[in-house]
Specification:
binds zinc ion; globular; mainly alpha; single chain; 65% helix; 11 helices; three-stranded mixed beta sheet
């Protein structure tokens, strides 16, 4: 590929990435609010498991899923997410995780549920995953990941060609190319996932209010997630990065929900 082709291709890739922002108008937070949230998280007690049977954990997840499903229709309709039906699965394994995948699937692991004190917190996890579906993040993340892979592959090719004057060992080139694309894919995925996390949280605040859950009790989830993100062995923070900004944004979102007449989030 001639070097003069590179800028055009990179521009196309960035165009793809630029489409993948949020569709909701997310609450603005100040640096002071983030600092305050961080001190609260630092001072909070460490995570501990709650004594419940596996059946009780499962019942909690399924009850929350049923209540939230009813609350979700108005939020789906608002952005044209259809069909608005979620398949929520309780996985009894010990992994500390939850995720959204495919068109409507949500998996909540018992390893996460057992750390949550109230159904309000469990509902916050389920609503957050529904939020990823409603805001179309699964498709956008795939677009981001492939855009990241394209940019990274182009840059790698340009660097290798420049470094070797074009005399590249094909095997070495291809193995470097694959790992370069993989790194690029995960970079593309991560570059927008913070915003996606904030958007899924924002949708969750409205959904919880609509389902009659207690937003202040649910708040503990963000304190505990952020607290444990540094010292817990789990993949959850690869897919759902947690920082004090999420707790600060949650508080602003809850105030917005309390002042809302129609309990519908703000769309861009
Ligand atoms: Zn998430």
């Amino acid at each position: 590929m001639g070097a003069w082709h590179l800028p055009a291709v990179i521009l196309i890739s960035l165009g793809l990435t630029a489409c993948a922002g949020s569709m909701h108008r997310l609450p603005l937070i100040s640096q002071d609010e983030v600092i305050e949230a961080n001190s609260e998280i630092t001072a909070a007690p460490d995570l501990h498991t709650v004594r419940r049977t596996s059946g009780q954990n499962q019942a909690m997840v399924m009850r929350a899923a049923a209540r939230l499903q009813k609350a979700a229709y108005a939020l789906c309709n608002q952005v044209g997410h259809s069909p608005c039906r979620f398949e929520v699965v309780f996985d009894p394994s010990d992994e500390v995780n939850a995720y959204a995948s495919g068109t409507d699937k949500i998996v909540i692991f018992e390893g996460l549920a057992k750390y949550l004190e109230t159904e309000d917190e469990v509902a916050a996890v389920v609503a957050h995953e529904m939020g990823h579906h409603i805001a179309g993040h699964i498709d956008k993340t795939q677009v981001n990941a492939s855009a990241g892979a394209i940019v990274s592959t182009i840059l790698y090719t340009a660097v290798m060609v420049a470094a070797t004057g074009g005399n590249v060992d094909p095997d070495a080139f291809n193995s470097g190319l694959n790992s370069s694309a993989q790194v690029g894919a995960s970079l593309g995925q991560l570059s927008f996932s913070k915003e996606h996390e904030r958007e899924a949280d924002y949708i969750a605040a409205y959904m919880l209010a609509r389902a009659g859950y207690d937003l202040d009790r649910a708040r503990r989830l963000w304190v505990q997630l952020t607290k444990s993100s540094g010292n817990m062995q789990t993949d959850m923070f690869d897919t759902h990065p947690a920082g004090p900004d999420r707790l600060a944004a949650w508080d602003v979102a809850v105030a917005e929900v309390a002042a809302s007449d129609d309990l519908l989030p703000e769309i861009k």
